[in-house]
Amino acid sequence: MSSSPAPFQTIRTPDASPRPTKIHADGVKVIYGTKQALHGVSIDIGEKSVTAFIGPSGCGKSTFLRCINRMNDTIVGARVEGKITLDGEDIYNTDLDVVELRARVGMVFQKPNPFPKSIFDNVAYGPRIHGLAKSKADLEEIVVTSLQKASLYNEVKDRLQEPGTGLSGGQQQRLCIARAIAVSPEVILMDEPCSALDPIATAKVEELIDELRTNYTIVIVTHSMQQAARVSQRTAFFHLGHLVEEGPTDHIFTNPLEQRTQDYITGRFG
Amino acid sequence: MTATLSHNTPEQALIVSHIDLGLQRRYRSERRFRAYGIAALTFGILCLVLLFSSIISRGYTAFEQTRITLKVDFDPAIVAPDGNRSAEAIMGGDAFRFDDLFSATVQKSLEISPDDEDGLYDALDLFSKGSSPMLRQMLAQDPALIGTTKDVEFYATGDVDSFVKGSIRADIPESQRNIKDKHIVLITKLKDSGALHLAFNTGLFTFGASTRPEVAGVGVAAIGSLYMMLVVLSLSLPLGVAGSIYLEEFAPKNRWTDLIEVNINNLAAVPSIVYGMLGLAVFINFAHLPRSASLVGGLVLTLTTLPTVIISTRAALKAVPPSIRDAGLGIGASKMQTVFHHVLPLAVPGILTGTIIGLAHALGETAPLLMIGMKAFVVDYPATPLDPATSLPTQIYMWATEPERAFIERTSAAIMVLLAFLLAMNSCAVLLRRMFERRW
Which superfamily is assigned to B219-436 in CATH? Predict the structure, then answer.
């Protein structure tokens, strides 16, 4: 319990064959003004795999996700303590450029938020500002491959110049994923990417996440336990600002070691 | 319990009627609210119609003006007695020779006997005092006219103009009107010969200040207003937009920025005359900028407009959904790139509307301009914003204090010109909004 004076102990179950660590978090605390949202979260996130964060609303899973690309910097009064490293490099180090970090750690948000520009410009925006394309042909290639990787290309190839906001919700979300992929990030953070989508669009995005894991490290926050079970290899359960339990997904869902995890996944609270 | 449509028991009937009563009350209150709304709108529209019909009915006559066409014989013996026909010679020398030329013209046209001096003066009363200088100007521009005969349109005086338009009536006692019976005889004669006629009053838009209503216009005032609007636009738009972007997107939210925000809102409510006092003290007495200059007027109006621009720009920036900022930042755009590539384009319609409405407000501002001397008597066009000028609202204010009938109609006409400007600017705001609005 958060009020208990004893130090909180996360229950961890290691993978049978652990992956190399991509992101390492150590005692991450987040304080919004006077309210503490995270009480020291430590976790290792393996490379080229999908890690799901689950937990009831307000448990701090999105807050922790937003620490990984320092999006919490934009929130007034938010303070982050502890240490997060990406490939061993402290991302809260003052020498580290936050713009570069966000180019390496892309993000897909809960609500699809394409720019009010054409589909092409939506995807091309990142490569343009980071100078990733040397020529127009280069840029076009990046856009096309990104859209292909996001399995959106076939649906939009004839209308790349039409506004991205004119697509359906599921297509918009895949456009946002294509936009994130276009800058070749190493990590993609997804904050409840399917919560605004219908089941068919959700299935497409989940399929996409599964494909993307061969090249990218993916961290996904989700409210749907079925989704976590379907797409992730490892699952972390958050509750009241603590990381309660983390381990291989099948292990968490079939044989949780902690009572609260058990209660949550069986639907007794949350 | 089974549900039936008929009210079997008194209790059921009671329940249903109870619900009906509540609904009735709610519908009634809604109808009442709608009626209030329609009443308020009707009242507003009526006031507007009243205002416009009053101004237009008083001012529409000012767009026409009485002119008298006379055949002028540019006699070299009168205008160039020494034989020198150059422009310099015409503009130099005795000014009375052009009065003589004009008198001769009137005498001849109206067939007044050379001995009838009183008759000649009565006839000259009908013409604007600017007539003989006009002839001189004409000759200076084209000396080849000397020795020829030409039809020239002269302005009738404001009083003759008012009489012709019917605003000075012949049926009131002669002692109470400026147009005497002897004048009426001459006017009738000129009218019958076709020399006296009404024409479109171009001078209303081109002339500067004058004590003679027939040659008074809003030209100088319009140029002054234009210069001021340029100064206001070129200062308040960049300053206001840059300030709001900084406050809204970059500045830390703390006690200082709160204080600044409160003060900007307060500044928007400061009476404009106070800005006029400030302008007088700072721009004229301290910085020694010229009095009555449109530059100073523009600077003062910038002060009055800036809070409006800042408030509307901040509102426009606030209205941009935060998800767009997240999207930009999340892809690795810097704060500056996010603001300028994504946030600002979405805020442009709101910013433009706010700026143009602020400009329209500044265009109609009078009090601060009185403080910095923009109600001077300015005849010549201001060549630069540093030259003395007046503005449309101060010109209206000055004309409104003149007693002549002809100035009364010109006051209303100037108000119409000002309203036309405002209408044009507001339509611009709507058009620009439409043009830049993006489908969301």
Answer: MetI-like (1.10.3720.10)
